TrEMBL record:
Pfam families (alphabetical): TP_methylase
Pathway: Cofactor biosynthesis; adenosylcobalamin biosynthesis
Keyword annotations of the record: Cobalamin biosynthesis, Methyltransferase, S-adenosyl-L-methionine, Transferase
Domain of life according to the entry: Bacteria
Residue ranges of every copy of the Tetrapyrrole methylase domain listed in the record: 14-222
GO MF annotations, alphabetized: precorrin-2 C20-methyltransferase activity
Provenance organism: Herbaspirillum lusitanum
Protein's recorded name: Precorrin-2 C(20)-methyltransferase
Reactions catalysed: precorrin-2 + S-adenosyl-L-methionine = precorrin-3A + S-adenosyl-L-homocysteine + H(+)
Family to which this protein belongs: Belongs to the precorrin methyltransferase family.
One BP annotation, GO: methylation
Keyword match Transferase: yes
Gene behind the chain: cobI
Amino acid sequence: MTVIETTAKPGLGTLTGIGVGPGPAAYLPLAALAALRAADVIYLPRARGAAQSVALQCLEGIDFDCSRLREIEFNMDPDRDVLRSHYAGLAQELAAELQAGKALAYLTIGDTLTYSTYGYVLAAVRDLLPACVCKTFPGITSYAAAAAALHWPLGVGKERTLILPCPDEATELRREIETHDIVVLMKVGERLSWVLALLNEMGIAAHCAFARRIGLPGEVLQSGLAQLDAEQASGYLATLLIRKNAIEKRHQP
C-alpha cells in the first residue's frame, strides 16, 4: 500500500485520509484501521438531508472510539463560491486542531482521491499548513466494488476503459461509448432513465451492469439492464458499468 507523506514540523498534528466502504466494513485496509483507532478526532462527512452518514454505515461492526467522531454536514451546492467558502472554513477548523498537535482522520466513501471531497480538504489544509504531515490511504472505488460484486471484468486484454461522470446529454455519452470499450459511469443520479434508454437503443444493455449502495440497505446489483427499472434503481451511490461489446471468451468450451 502506498502512503504519501510530507515532512513534519515539530508540534503539528497529522491529517490522515481514509477511504471506507463502499459498503462492507471488511473493505477497510488494516493500515487505515490502525490510523482510525489512533486518531484524536475523526471527521465524518454527512450529506445534508441524510439521516445518517453513509461513511459511518460502512464502519458498522468495527471497534473504534466513536466518541472521537465529529460530523460535518455537506451541501453539494452547484454554486462554486459557496463550496469554496465551505472548504475554506473546514480547512481552518482542521488547521486549528493540527496546530494543537492532534491526530486527525478524515473519512470518505470509496477511494480517498477518486471523485472525493477529501481531495479538496487536503489541498486546502496543505495551503494553510504546508509543513503538516498528511497521510492518504487508498480505498476501494465504487466501480471496483461493483465489478467484484457482479463478477464483471473492468478490462480484458487491451480494452480501453473510461471513468466518466455522467454527461448531461445522450449524444455525448453515445460518443464516449462508441470510442471506448468500457465506460464506468459515475454520478448518474436522475439521468438513469435516459441512460438506460440509450443503452437499449444501442443494443448493448444486455452486457452492461448496475450497482447501488453495495453491501448496504437498499442494495441493487444487476447484470443485464434491459429490464432495469430506472425509477426504483436510481439514487445516491450508484455506478453503471457499460461494455460496448460482449466480453470475449478465451477459454476452451
